[in-house]
Amino acid sequence: MDTKSAVDLMESSSEVHFSGFHMDGFEQRKSGMEQPTTSATDMYKQPFVIGVAGGAASGKTAVCDMIIQQLHDQRVVLVNQDSFYHNLTEEELARVQDYNFDHPDAFDTELLLCVMDKLKRGEAVDIPKYDFKSYKSDVYPKRRVNPSDVIILEGILVFHDPRVRELMNMKIFVDTAVALHIKLFSADADVRLARRIRRDTGEKGRDIAVVLDQYSKFVKPAFDDFILPTKKYADIIIPRGGDNHVAIDLIVQHIRTKLGQHDLCKIYSNLYVIQSTFQIRGMHTLIRDAQITKHDFVFYSDRLIRLVVEHGLGHLPFTEKQVITPTGSVYTGVDFCKRLCGVSVIRSGESMENALRACCKGIKIGKILIHREGDNGQQLIYEKLPNDISDRHVLLLDPILGTGNSAVQAISLLIRKGVPESNIIFLNLISAPQGVHVVCKKFPRIKIVTSEIEIGLNKDYRVIPGMGEFGDRYFGTDDDEQLVVPSQ
Ligand SMILES: Nc1ncnc2c1ncn2[C@@H]1O[C@H](COP(=O)(O)OP(=O)(O)O)[C@@H](O)[C@H]1O
Ligand SMILES: Nc1ccn([C@@H]2O[C@H](COP(=O)(O)O)[C@@H](O)[C@H]2O)c(=O)n1
Ligand SMILES: [Mg+2]
């Protein structure tokens, strides 16, 4: 593929980074060349979505404010579930003391989903600003929210609807429980009630009797029935809310790490793209060049494969081991996982076997041959696997993950042979987003380790920018060289 084609291809992903490329400074040109099948919507930079739930007055807003402050160099927006309270009818307004604002039905979840969908697709949205005094969401002008790197969705019931939960990359539950207190829940409720009384009588100008009545009639029962049961969905529970600086620091650190990763890694926690360096980019530049010599193609592919294999081995379990050093000191280290094997997908996967053997002395390597016809005519032709494969961790080798169809065939076979899904590490050099989606969704417990994520697939289901037929290039069957007869 020439430079011009690559530029044209990337037009559709303006400002979105793929495989380390981006469009800044490129002149926009059109040509009749093949376009990736990845839709424009798939190419939006995915924001990192954090859900923050917890009882009313537990400190959700305080926690969000601290996260936003600490992420000062990122574009962060806060979306409050309060903004999606239904407007009350005249009848409901007349008897507002009987209205349950803590029930899931009090919120317009469809509107919330629509807003979140737009933000995730990179569109700006106008969000209602709720007025707690008039119980209306159309008193103030709407708030314009621009698409951002991080979206924080905060509210008592943001974990209630599974469709809303699905949007989140990280779920935080804010707790006011005091760890040393024997009656954990009552302490938690007491703190929330005390804060609520102070807040609602102050900020919302409500009468204390009304606050207490609403609390016993609706707030407390709803906490027990709807909010507390969603605590189990949280990835992180923050005791002591905004006072918990250690938890907030750790969360901010985690978000920063995630933001530095490829967008797909934010979606799939089982996808690992090795940290890019100029050495790695340089090697990719060489092996993707159609003009490179066969010798150099093999040399630089081998170097990259070795890196991927080493990275993949880092995901194996380990046990602690102590040794005595020549100085007589104790060194506490780890022992490698011994029950492992490789499985290469013939033929290009065989190019990864040497690197695996170089890292794991005497490792058993099985083989799978899958016949490919077009996009979906996948057929398993041959397999030769270690008899005890079900007891082993498996490093599945295939340099290219394209549509994901061959990978699904190979992984399904391993699972049929009794290999636990979580014992499979799939190693490739390059992965198309389509293949990542297919494999990570179908097998959420396997790990994929790759060195670069591609733009997508073309109409012939070939990975682009890609590197052509890897097996042919690696094993030298892609040219018309004369037959080499070994000398006698
Ligand atoms: N750690 C804390 N210690 C004392 N008061 C707090 C703390 N966190 C929040 N508050 C106060 O409690 C009230 C409720 O906190 P807020 O963050 O608004 O809760 P939520 O958003 O969960 O309803 C506010 O008036 C706030 O100032
Ligand atoms: N008109 C309204 C709407 C909601 N509430 C209460 O707000 C609480 C949720 O907001 P937090 O910031 O505390 O999470 C919830 O308990 C509702 O009862 C209200 O009082 N009036
Ligand atoms: Mg709040």
Automatic annotation (TrEMBL):
One of its GO terms (biological process) is UMP salvage. Its EC number is 2.7.1.48. Residues 49-246 form the Phosphoribulokinase/uridine kinase domain. One of its GO terms (molecular function) is ATP binding. Coiled coil: none annotated. CDD domains: PRTases_typeI, UMPK. One of its GO terms (cellular component) is chloroplast. It comes from the Eukaryota. Keywords: Allosteric enzyme, ATP-binding, Glycosyltransferase, GTP-binding, Kinase, Multifunctional enzyme, Nucleotide-binding, Transferase. It catalyses: cytidine + ATP = CMP + ADP + H(+); uridine + ATP = UMP + ADP + H(+). InterPro entries: P-loop_NTPase, PRK/URK, PRTase-like, PRTase_dom, Uridine_kinase-like. Pathway: Pyrimidine metabolism; CTP biosynthesis via salvage pathway; CTP from cytidine: step 1/3; Pyrimidine metabolism; UMP biosynthesis via salvage pathway; UMP from uridine: step 1/1. In the C-terminal section; belongs to the UPRTase family. This is Uridine kinase. It comes from Arachis hypogaea (Peanut).
